[in-house]
Specification:
The chain has 2 domains: about 50 residues; about 400 residues, Beta Barrel (Porin), CATH 2.40.160. About 15% of the residues lie in helices and about 45% in strands. The chain is built from 6 helices and 24 strands. The chain has a 16-stranded antiparallel beta barrel. Strands 13-16 form a two-stranded antiparallel ribbon. The protein is globular, with a radius of gyration of 28 Å. It starts with a helix and ends with a strand.
């Protein structure tokens, strides 16, 4: 602004002085030429002032930013409480609000660290075991590229085991849309499937509903968002037999599955809001046949509801298969002892605590959820947000259950707290208890105490 003022003052002074001394046409011509040069200089100064300042945490040249970062956006995209459903909409809303600028590349990420104590015991009198461990669940780096006003690319690179340097890309997709111009949008790539809600209040351990029914993989999708209504339709990959690989449908290059999802969100005022939603998916990780070599597609539907009342968040999810279940697909999340970053899934305690006849073993496709009836799951979640010594703090608790009759019935309780120590760094403490039966055999009762830290950048 100072440069503009000086240039304007010089311009006015030169014009006045030139006019007073004008005594001939030659002098008038020189003054006109000088005026033109000053106007050009002032235009250059104006352009420099409008294009030389980069947003916080970035660099730019002119009006095009090359590299920027936003830790708050990283937290939106990578927090474990979010199931990953509708994250393409999160990107579009961030662009609409101006958080993401056009023609920029945003870098971000997350690091996680945890210390855990696990006690496995059994009501049947089998031996009790105790263990402690330091966990490095994930290190993520995300890349978000905004091309013009309509196209956005997103990629999430995760190191799942820092010791062995296992690197995966759980999310890689593009989004086409501009909510400021129209309510319709499209996306394609690998991400969590828009089915259900499955958000949770826990820090790491997923609810049983999310673990059993959430899906991710290669897909093409179409969405609508306006007046509080969000509706999506997704076509995704599956096998030639029609079964859905819940944890990694992108490994099969054939579209043979689909999902539909819809929700309504109403914000009444800053102290009260609510939402309701429902969804359907045509193939899950459950098998309608007893043999995993001959899978039969089993779909599922879900309903969810939630509200916020003056900092108190309450939510509930319900999911149920559309057909009877006799075994699990070989790639079901319920069989996995590894994490799925796209869904915010971490190894379930009851998987590690499975016990048959007093001997520790792993769950197989045919020794769990083989009762020949529908599988249901539900969860109830509560979280209270409050400041503690000037730091945002969340107290949370959840109950979830996965049920197929009394012989296949798992129950889980979780309670804990986390606090925002500074900027986008959170620390937490939680307790998880899991018990139940699979194939009429008792699970080991799992008691998990976890101290964790998560930093977004």
């Amino acid at each position: 602004m100072k440069v503009k003022t000086i240039v304007t003052a010089l311009s006015a002074g030169m014009i006045v002085s030139g006019s007073a001394m004008a005594a001939s046409s030659d002098i008038d011509a020189k003054i006109a030429n000088l005026q033109q040069q000053v106007q050009q200089l002032q235009a250059q100064v104006n352009a420099g002032n409008s294009g030389s300042t980069a947003s916080s945490g970035g660099s730019s040249s002119g009006n095009v930013a090359f590299v920027r970062y936003d830790s708050n956006f990283s937290q939106k995209m990578l927090n474990n409480q979010d199931s990953g459903v509708n994250r393409e909409l999160t990107i579009l809303q961030s662009r609409q609000s101006g958080q993401l600028q056009s023609n920029a590349i945003y870098l971000g990420g997350k690091g996680e660290l945890g210390a855990q104590y696990t006690r496995l015991s059994s009501a049947s009198g089998y031996p009790t075991s105790n263990s402690t461990a330091i966990d490095l669940p994930y290190a993520n780096v995300i890349f978000t590229s905004t091309i013009g006003d309509w196209v956005t690319g997103y990629a999430n690179v995760a190191v799942t085991n820092p010791i062995t340097n296992d690197v995966v890309m759980p999310d890689a997709y593009f989004v086409l849309g501009d909510l400021a111009k129209m309510p319709f949008y499209f996306w394609g790539g690998v991400k969590a499937v828009d089915f259900g809600n499955f958000d949770m209040v826990n820090t790491y351990v997923p609810t049983l509903t999310r673990a059993a029914f959430a899906a991710s993989g290669g897909q093409l999708g179409f969405g609508f968002h306006q007046y509080g209504v969000t509706a999506t339709l997704t076509a995704l990959n599956g096998t030639t037999l029609g079964s859905n690989n819940t944890s990694n449908v992108g490994s099969v290059k054939q579209i043979s599955n689909f999902a539909a999802n819809a929700s309504y969100n109403m914000t009444v005022n800053q102290n009260f809001g609510w939402y309701i939603g429902s969804g359907y998916i045509n193939g899950t990780g459950f098998n309608g046949n007893a043999s995993s070599a001959n899978p039969k597609r089993v779909g599922a539907w879900t309903a969810n509801v939630g509200m916020n009342i003056a900092g108190l968040d309450l939510s509930a999810d319900f999911a149920m298969t559309t057909d009877t279940v006799k075994s699990l697909q070989s790639n079901s999340n319920l069989l996995s002892t590894t994490n799925n970053s796209s869904l915010g899934l971490y190894s379930l305690p009851f998987i590690l605590g499975y016990q048959t006849g007093g001997n520790n073993s792993t769950i197989t496709p045919t020794n769990a959820f083989n009762g020949g009836s529908l599988v249901k799951s539900w969860d109830v979640n509560g979280a209270y947000n409050l400041p503690v010594m000037g730091h945002d703090t969340v107290l949370f608790g959840t109950y979830s259950q996965l049920y197929q009759g009394s012989d296949n019935n798992v129950v889980q309780f979780t309670a804990g707290a986390r606090t925002n120590v500074f900027d986008t760094v959170w620390v937490g403490l939680s307790y998880n208890y899991t018990t139940g039966k699979l194939n009429s055999l008792d699970l080991q009762n799992s008691n998990l105490v976890l101290v964790d830290a998560t930093a977004y950048f």
